[in-house]
Write a structure and sequence with these properties.
mainly alpha; transmembrane helix
Length: about 50
């Protein structure tokens, strides 16, 4: 079993989170970096946060 799929999925999630953050008038770069560490938790936080 190859573990590359895990990293591809996590990397895709970080890009999605950066785009979602920018759509909510927040720093895409900051949320990209935060998403590398938090992953799905960062996505959840972005979804529940109100637009700036």
């Amino acid at each position: 079993m190859d573990g590359n799929g895990y990293f591809v999925g996590w990397g895709t999630l970080t890009l999605i989170n950066a785009g979602l953050a920018q759509a909510k008038n927040r720093s895409g770069l900051n949320w990209f970096l935060l998403s590398i560490i938090l992953g799905p938790v960062a996505t959840f936080l972005l979804v529940i946060m109100e637009k700036k």
